[in-house]
C-alpha cells in the first residue's frame, strides 16, 4: 500500500523532534478538555443550558468532542490544499498514479491529533455511562454509530471546504467558520441559538444531526423544538448525504483546477 | 532621526504587506462574523431571563463578543511569527546583520500588521454586531482613548510571547508544540471564549497576575464595555503596562540567550 508507506514516513518524520511532538500531543489533547470545560463554565452559571441538565449537556458536548477529532485526524489537513494549489505542488499530486484525495490525506497526516481522538472518545464513554440511558439494541447501535456519523459529516465539511481553494485560493478561514465553528456549534444544545441562526446551521446545513438529535434519541427525550422523534435517529443517513455532496464538489473542483502555471 | 524613519518605514511595510492579502482578509472577517453570532447567542442564552451574566448586561455581552471577535485578528495571538521558520532555515542570520535591533524590527512590522487589521478585521465584526444586536457603545469619551491605548498594549504583549515562542526554535528546532500549548491556554485564559468574571474569583485573579492572557483580550474588552467605570479601567491599564514591561524584558533576555546559541556555518 503506497498510502501506508507515505503515512509511516510522515509519522516517523514528525516524531523526530521529540520534545515538540510530546508538547503537541498533550496540547492537542488538552484542546478537547478545554472545549468541554468551556461548555461547563457556562453551564455552571445557571445550572442549565438551553433547558437541558448537566448529563444531557455533557452527552451533546462529548458527542461533538468525539466526532470532530476523528474528522480532524483523517481529513483536517485537507485545508492545506490551498498551499498545494498556490505553490503548484498540486500538479505533482495529480501526476502520481494515486487518488489526489487519498494523497492529500496521507501527505500531511498529523499523528499528534491522535491525542485529541483518544480524549474525545474517553469523554464520550464517560458521558454515556453517566447519562442514565435506558439501553435498547437500537440505542446501543446508535451510540456506536453517532460519533462515526458525526466524523463523516465533519470530514465531508473539510473536503467541501478545501475545494473552495480551487476557485478562491486564500479561502481558508471561510471553511474554518463551518468546520471549527461547526464543532463549537454542535457542543451546545441548539435550543440556545437565535431562530434564523439555528434554522440555517442546525437544519439547513445539518449540524443538528451531529450531537443534538442523536443525544435526544439516546436519552429518549422529546425535542422542545418539536422535531419528530424518528428524525433523531437519522444522523447516519445525513452523514452519507453530506459525504456524497462533498464528493461531488471535490470532483467538480478537480475538473475546474487550472495549474498556476510556470 | 534615521532610526525613527527606519521604524516608521518598517511599520508601514508591515501594514502594506498585509493589505495585499485581500482574499484572506475577507475570508477571516467572514469567520469572525460567524463566530460572533455563535458566541453572542450562547452568552445571551446563558444570561437568559435574568438578563445578566457575571455583571455584564445583555448589551455589554453583545459588545464583549463582537469587539472580541474584531480584536482577535488585531492581537493575532493565534498567528505564529515566521521567526521559528527563519531559525530552522538559518535566515535569522540575515536579521542579525541589519542595522536595526531585531526585536524592534519585528515589533514594528507587527504593529503595522495590527494597524491594517484594525481598519479591516476589527471594523467588520463590530459593524455587523452593531446592526444585528442591541450593542452597548462606551458612553465616556475618555473610554475610546483608553481603549486605543489598551489595544496597543495588548498587541505588544501578544507579540512578545509569539516572539519568544519563535525564539524557542533555537532550542527545540520545531516550535509547533510550544505554539500549540500557547494557543490552547490563550483561548480559555484570555476572555475570548467567555468573560473571565464567569470564573471563580481566585482563578480569575490567578490568570491576571500569573499569566499574560487577560492583558491581551479581557483588558481592552472590559474598557470597551466600561465595566466597573474608569477606576477599573485604570487598574486594567496598569496591569497591562506591567505585563508589557515584563514581556518585553523577557524577550530581550531570551533573545540574548538565543543569539549565544547561534552558530553560523562557513568562513
The major pleated sheet of chain A works out as: none
Q: Termini of chain A, distance in Å?
A: 32 Å
| Number of helical segments with 4 or more residues of chain A | 12
Can you tell me the residue ranges of chain B where pLDDT is under 50 for at least 5 consecutive residues?
none
Largest interface: A-B, 41 and 37 residues
Oligomeric grouping of the chains:
heterodimer
Terminal Cα span of chain B: 35 Å
Share of residues in helices of chain A = over 70%
Low-confidence stretches of chain A: none
Q: Using the alpha-carbon principal axes, give the shape of chain A.
A: globular
Note the beta-strand portion of chain A.
under 5%
Radius of gyration of chain B, taken over Cα atoms and rounded to an integer in Å = 19 Å
Portion of residues in helices of chain B?
Answer: over 70%
Mean pLDDT of chain B: 89
Sum up the overall morphology of chain B in one term.
globular
- Radius of gyration of chain A, in angstroms, nearest whole number: 19 Å
Compute the number of strand runs of chain A.
0
What is the average of the pLDDT values of chain A? 87
Q: Report the strand count of chain B.
A: 2
Strand order of the largest sheet of chain B: 1-2
Amino acid at each position: 500500500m503506497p498510502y501506508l508507506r507515505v503515512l509511516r514516513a510522515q509519522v516517523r518524520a514528525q516524531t523526530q523532534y521529540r520534545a515538540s511532538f510530546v508538547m503537541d500531543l498533550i496540547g492537542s489533547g488538552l484542546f478537547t478538555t478545554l472545549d468541554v470545560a468551556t461548555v461547563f463554565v457556562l453551564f455552571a452559571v445557571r445550572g442549565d443550558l438551553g433547558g437541558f441538565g448537566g448529563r444531557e449537556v455533557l452527552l451533546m458536548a462529548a458527542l461533538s468532542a468525539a466526532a470532530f477529532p476523528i474528522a480532524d485526524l483523517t481529513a483536517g489537513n485537507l485545508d492545506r490544499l490551498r498551499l498545494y494549489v498556490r505553490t503548484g505542488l498540486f500538479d505533482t499530486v495529480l501526476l502520481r498514479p494515486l487518488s489526489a484525495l487519498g494523497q492529500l490525506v496521507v501527505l500531511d497526516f498529523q499523528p499528534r491529533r491522535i491525542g485529541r481522538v483518544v480524549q474525545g472518545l474517553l469523554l464520550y464513554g464517560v458521558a454515556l455511562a453517566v447519562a442514565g440511558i435506558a439501553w435498547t439494541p437500537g440505542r446501543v447501535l446508535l451510540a456506536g454509530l453517532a460519533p462515526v456519523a458525526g466524523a463523516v459529516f465533519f470530514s465531508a465539511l473539510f473536503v467541501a471546504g478545501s475545494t473552495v481553494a480551487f476557485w478562491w485560493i486564500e479561502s481558508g478561514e471561510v471553511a474554518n467558520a463551518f468546520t471549527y465553528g461547526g464543532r463549537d456549534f454542535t457542543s451546545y444544545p441548539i435550543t440556545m441559538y437565535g431562530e434564523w441562526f439555528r434554522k440555517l446551521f442546525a437544519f439547513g446545513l445539518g449540524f443538528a444531526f451531529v450531537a443534538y438529535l442523536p443525544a435526544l434519541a439516546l436519552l429518549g427525550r422529546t425535542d422542545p423544538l418539536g422535531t419528530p422523534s424518528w428524525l433523531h435517529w437519522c444522523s447516519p443517513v445525513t452523514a452519507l448525504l453530506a459525504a456524497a455532496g462533498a464528493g461531488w464538489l471535490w470532483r467538480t473542483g478537480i475538473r475546474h483546477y487550472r495549474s498556476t502555471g510556470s | 532621526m534615521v532610526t525613527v524613519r527606519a521604524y516608521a518605514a518598517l511599520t508601514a511595510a508591515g501594514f502594506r504587506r498585509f493589505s495585499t492579502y485581500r482574499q484572506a482578509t475577507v475570508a477571516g472577517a467572514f469567520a469572525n462574523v460567524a463566530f460572533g453570532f455563535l458566541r453572542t447567542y450562547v452568552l445571551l442564552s446563558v444570561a437568559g431571563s435574568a438578563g445578566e451574566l457575571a455583571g455584564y448586561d445583555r448589551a455589554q455581552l453583545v459588545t464583549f463578543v463582537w469587539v472580541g471577535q474584531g480584536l482577535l485578528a488585531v492581537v493575532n495571538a493565534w498567528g505564529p511569527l515566521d521567526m521559528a521558520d527563519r531559525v530552522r532555515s538559518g535566515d535569522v542570520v540575515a536579521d542579525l546583520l541589519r542595522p536595526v535591533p531585531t526585536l524592534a524590527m519585528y515589533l514594528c512590522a507587527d504593529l503595522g500588521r495590527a494597524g491594517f487589521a484594525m481598519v479591516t478585521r476589527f471594523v467588520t465584526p463590530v459593524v455587523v454586531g452593531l446592526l444585528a444586536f442591541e450593542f452597548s457603545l462606551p458612553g465616556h469619551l475618555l473610554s475610546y482613548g483608553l481603549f486605543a491605548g489598551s489595544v496597543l498594549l495588548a498587541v505588544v504583549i501578544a507579540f512578545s510571547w509569539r516572539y519568544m515562542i519563535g525564539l524557542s526554535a533555537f532550542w527545540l528546532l520545531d516550535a509547533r508544540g510550544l505554539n500549540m500549548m500557547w494557543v490552547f491556554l490563550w483561548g480559555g485564559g484570555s476572555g475570548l471564549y467567555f468573560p473571565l468574571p464567569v470564573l471563580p474569583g481566585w482563578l480569575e485573579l490567578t490568570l491576571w497576575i500569573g499569566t499574560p492572557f487577560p492583558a491581551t483580550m479581557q483588558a481592552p474588552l472590559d474598557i470597551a464595555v466600561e465595566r466597573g467605570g474608569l477606576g477599573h479601567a485604570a487598574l486594567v491599564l496598569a496591569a497591562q503596562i506591567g505585563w508589557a514591561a515584563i514581556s518585553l524584558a523577557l524577550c530581550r533576555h531570551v533573545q540574548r540567550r538565543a543569539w549565544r546559541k547561534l552558530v553560523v556555518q562557513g568562513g
